[in-house]
ABC-type polar-amino-acid transporter
Amino acid sequence: MSEFAIELRGVRKSFGRNEVLSGIDLAVRPGEVTVILGPSGSGKSTLLRTINHLEQVDGGTVRVGGGLIGYRRKGDKLYELHEREILRQRARIGFVFQNFNLFPHLTVRENVALAPVAAQHRPKAEVNAEALELLARVGLADKADEYPSRLSGGQQQRVAIARALALRPEVVLFDEPTSALDPELVGEVLDVIQDLARGGSTLVIVTHEIGFAREVADTVVLMDAGRVVEQGPPAQVLDNPSHPRTKAFLAHVL
Ligand code: ADP
Ligand code: MG
């Protein structure tokens, strides 16, 4: 087993001639919270998406729990896995999107219970009970039978977090989980993520919430133009940055 929950080495990704990730190295230990900051277009979403093979990499490797993601090694060559195996890997990696992406025609509880039953073939009664526990954990036990459209954005995002957790993932990735929310709803979602962090979950969070990063992150990573320009504890990166790109970014968002 690897000492890292997530390990990226030399990850490269281009869209046509546009190189979006130019050799990313990133290592996250189990139970650690990593916050990724950086200007729009710097490659943050693409980076997260490579971790569960929503994007194929052009070079380098991604490992979760020590296992290669998306590919199998044969000699010194890598071959892409079959879709079925990729889906199985994805089930080990929770993903929370900016726009919640709940299924509108399913109730809150059905949203949470769907994948564990459909993809992991777990018993329906057990999954339903666990869905209620997860909804209680995000403060929404009383909304189990509502449809998403009846909920606020903050409530919908908390359902999306419960849904991600229902797969019992090894790591959870968040892509700007509060960016689509009205300001007064941001706190309730950040509180839920902070609870997960305190509970020892391994999290990678792309966000512009600097105060949250300072409080919750073990490591802050600053990306710019497809590269990691600086990484370290929040006190170092946020309060005493060494790289001019970090200084410029922080001056812009603070
Ligand atoms: P960020 O999340 O930091 O704002 P992204 O990873 O979304 O950055 O995007 C980085 C760059 O990659 C941008 O220039 C964006 O236009 C480009 N890009 C992202 N996804 C695609 C895609 N599917 N096809 C073409 N270009 C893309
Ligand atoms: Mg993005």
Q: What stands out?
A: The longest helix spans residues 183-198. The two ends are 40 Å apart (CA to CA). Residues 46 and 129 are 35 Å apart (CA to CA). The first strand starts at residue 6 and ends at 15.
